[in-house]
Each structure stands twice: as structure tokens, then as C-alpha cells.
Design brief:
mainly alpha; 3% strand; 265 residues
Amino acid sequence: MIPTALHLSDAEISALLGTFLWPLFRVMGLLIADPLFGTRSIPRKFKVGMAIVITVLITPSLPPMPAVAVISGAGLLMIAQQLIIGMALGFIMRMTITVVEMAGFLISTQMGLGFAMLFDPQHNSQVPTISRLLSLMVFMMLLAMDGHHLILSTLIDSFRLFPISPEFLPRIGFRQLADWGSKMFSLGLLLSMPVVGALLIINLAIGVMTRAAPQFNIFSFGFPLTLLAGFIALYLSLPSFADGIIQLYREGTAMMLTLLKARAG
């Protein structure tokens, strides 16, 4: 038997493209901005292939797509909308890594290791050694607690909470995203407070000793003491530091869902 040719109308082709194309751009937006999947060490071809595989797997469980032609002004606007939504979700998780890096920068500056820089391939720039060390620890904790699975499950839930439609994110959603950034800044300061507070006491003690004994050589004694006290304080604060990072990830995933629920509000 000679197989008959498959005939598809323009509307059917547009619906088939929209079924896979719009979710693909939301997934790609998340992979671009997410701290784990969006790192520079992962090749771009692998990211695109992973986005296609994830889209094919989750498409059968997604809500029906809107009846909008892909090759149209509204269709192209929806593509940009899905890309922005995915990048906003990834940006929330990126902030959790930035909080730890900022805490490491503050600790390095107080310890006198601000000049000890290390190349970070993720940011393509020089970062303090303590920041790089803490960021690697955060990535290992993310993998240990199945954070990558949690991020992907939150992405799938985003299609249920905020289905693909011509409607854009409400203004309150972007306001919540900005407030989340300011909250992350304060959390970064809180993470660095144990070490910074201990080093502040050490520096005050060295200042009093220098005032009491002018012949005291602060450069030969103060820097090693500050460095040793900083490492001891960092070692003692690591257990609470790990608890704070786990709490950051939980709040980050909760914020991702809150951003999508802003549509209902």
C-alpha cells in the first residue's frame, strides 16, 4: 500500500507550533538565568537540547494553548512574554547565589583577603577567594538537597499557576521581584554578620593595643591575627551558614510561586 500524504492546514500547523514553541521559550528563559543550569561551563548546545527535551516531556500535561497564530504580532509578543517569565523565575534563584557571594565579599574584605582574587568562569570576572569557595559550597548543597529537581518541578507548576496566554505579568509581580532583591541584600548582610562582628572586635582590640603601646607593630602582628580569627569565625559559623542557605532556597522557590500567583491577585 502506498501511504497517503499528510495534509495539514495553516491553522493546524500554527497550533502545533504554538503547543511546543511557547513552552520552549519559558523553559529556555529559566535555563538562561538559573544559577545551576545557566552557568557558562555548560555548553549552549546542551542547554538548547535540554530545553527541547524538557518541553517535549512536559507538553502533554500542560493546559490548552490559546488560539493565537504563532507568526503574528500577538504570537511574537507571547514568545517574548514567556522568555521574560522564565528569566524572572531564574533570576529569583540567581539571587540566592548572589547573596552568598556578597557575604563572601564582605568577609574577604574584613579578613584582609580583598586582594586575593580568583577567576570565576561563571561571571567571567575576578572574585574574592572566599566568595568562590562559598558559592561552590552552595552549588554542592543545591545538588545534595535535589534543588535542581525542585527548580524543574516549580517550572512545571508555573504553567498551571500562570498558563500561557496573551496576558502579561501584572505590575505587582515586578514589584514583588524588586522587593525580593532588597530582601536578599539584607540576608547577605546577616549571613556575613557572625564573621564580620568577630573581626570587628579583633580590629578594635588591635586598635586599643596600638594606642596603648605605640611601638606595637600592627602590620607584623595585626594582619596574621585578623586572618586567623577570620578563618576560625568562618569555621564556627558554617553550620548556621548552611541552615541559612537551605532557608534561602526554600524562600526562593516559594517566591517563584508567589510571583506567578500575583496574577490571581
